[in-house]
Write a structure and sequence with these properties.
Layout: H1 7-37, H2 42-65, H3 73-102, H4 106-129
């Protein structure tokens, strides 16, 4: 079982998380800007932050994490974005459950949701988009 965790997989996951951290900054920044300054509803602001981060994450992961040479970049982006949309659903459900059921604050709930979604996004992209 442990031999599935190769050094290449671990290295890619660490890079994916580093890229994800840059996405977290973009995600929180866009969410904060939309929610607090533009007064957009919090779940819509969350979606805008998430989509902005997913787009920047695609380009960084393509170049640095997975070294993709796929000439069908639009198709690859579509696959990455589709996985991100499923991630958005996971993210939003987690956000909702944390806020409404567990009664955690919005930004702590968002951090929890991002953590859970990271595993989905990595393994789905590792096995599908950049396989």
């Amino acid at each position: 079982m442990l031999d599935i965790f190769t050094s290449d997989l671990v290295s890619k996951f660490i890079k994916f998380c580093a890229v994800g951290f840059s996405g977290l900054v973009i995600d929180f920044g866009v969410t904060y800007f939309c929610k607090e300054l533009l007064k957009i509803q919090k779940f819509i602001a969350n979606a805008l932050g998430f989509v902005s981060a997913a787009t920047s994450n695609y380009f960084l992961n393509r170049l640095w994490t997975f070294y993709s040479q796929n000439p069908e970049m639009l198709r690859e982006y579509g696959q990455f974005f589709a996985i991100s949309l499923v991630g958005l659903i996971i993210n939003t459900i987690t956000l909702y459950l944390c806020i409404k059921k567990i009664k955690t604050g919005f930004y702590l709930s968002k951090l929890i949701a991002i953590g859970i979604t990271t595993f989905w996004n990595f393994f789905a992209n590792y096995l599908y988009t950049f396989a």
